[in-house]
Amino acid sequence: MILPVVALAALVAAGTAAAQGGEGNTDLVQRVLPNPNPEVTTDWAKLPDERTWGSTAGIDIDPTDGHVWVYDRCGANGLDGGCAANPTVDPVLKYDRHTGELLASFGKGLFVLPHGLHVDDDGNVWVTDSQGNGEIGHQVIKFSPEGEVLMTLGVAGQPGSDPEGVHLNEPCDVVTWGPTGDIFVSDGHSGQNPNPPEGRTGRILKYDKDGNFIKQWGEIGFRPGQFRTPHAIEFDSQGRLFVADRGNHRIQIFDQEGELLDIYHQFSRISGIYITADDTLYAIDSESSEGNHYGWKTGVRIGPASEDKVTAFIPPHVPEEGRVLQGLAGEGIAVDEDGTVFVAEGPGSRPFAGGGVTRYGKGMD
């Protein structure tokens, strides 16, 4: 059901109040919530050739075999070099979810800064490139499970915000809707900046299964239907599109034509979203701090996708060295059929080692 304007205004007001603090508006993890995944394994996935992990933000579960896909930014942390400076290494990687054994790798020379990662129902791997260098970047690339390039969206190396969806501008994430194959891209990584660079966007683009543009919606802003960095996107079983509107500290939920259905505020400043087959929502916050989201913690919030309600919380881990602050939580998240949580450690989250994959087990493995 589409919410009326009055109801949407009330949701925005509630979110603003929560951000400002006050009785009853502090982070829900301030009360005791269960942690379903207390067993923490850092550096779970090893890179080939004794490579050192850079940062990462994209991770997903392969629906055909249950294993884990992730990418490495070719040894770089965030924007400092990226894969354009290391074009001879494969950034896209697949690991056995039980053993951590490397099963596949590909993608060398095709990316500047990989950002979002999605595996479709056929096992094809989609990766967004959120930066560009004039020759490559600002694209979505679809790979076969073996690494063959099957499709690209956007113009290589050329950012743009045209309404026809020809160009992309810092695409954050990509997801496909299985029954139709329609493709959805969240675009505009710089939108959460106080003064976004000229021409930057905050939008969702929709294409058909063959990559033909259908429509787009959204712009930079804080009102319903606007975005300040749509950092991650995901579908629930009903086909509702969940958008992690990170700069606005909320999740916005749309139908596939762009009609706003609901807004959630209790999942914090979200970098990554994963929704399981039974519609359990996992939202990971890698950024909250006293400076940008006072009173809230980083970590993984868990609840039903059907309502704005947090029922469990996986706290951030604390490293032996490096920046600790509130602890460390990654940007990307994926959950296998056993409930094991895999987290992609994002930019700056582990400056002493760059990044990698952290595994949160249920404690009975």
Question: Going across the major beta sheet, what is the strand order?
Answer: 1-24-23-22
Question: What is the CA-atom radius of gyration, in angstroms?
Answer: 19 Å
Spans with pLDDT under 50 lasting ≥5 residues?
A: 1-24, 348-353
Principal-axes shape call: globular
Q: Note the main sheet.
A: 4 strands, antiparallel
Roughly what fraction of the amino acids lie in strands? 35-45%
- Separation, N- and C-terminal Cα atoms: 41 Å
Summary of the model, kept short:
With 365 residues, the protein is mostly beta strands. The protein contains one helix and 24 strands.
Features:
365 residues, mainly beta, four-stranded antiparallel β-sheet, 24 strands, 4% helix, disordered N terminus
Account of the 3D structure:
47% of the residues are buried. Helix content is 4%, strand content 35%. The strands form six sheets. It has a four-stranded antiparallel sheet with strand order 1-24-23-22, with no helix packed on it. It is mainly β. It is built from one helix and 24 strands.
Write the layout of secondary structure elements.
Layout: H1 5-20, E1 39-41, E2 59-61, E3 68-71, E4 92-95, E5 102-106, E6 114-119, E7 125-132, E8 137-143, E9 149-153, E10 171-176, E11 183-187, E12 203-207, E13 213-217, E14 230-235, E15 241-245, E16 250-254, E17 260-264, E18 272-275, E19 280-285, E20 299-304, E21 312-314, E22 332-335, E23 341-350, E24 354-361
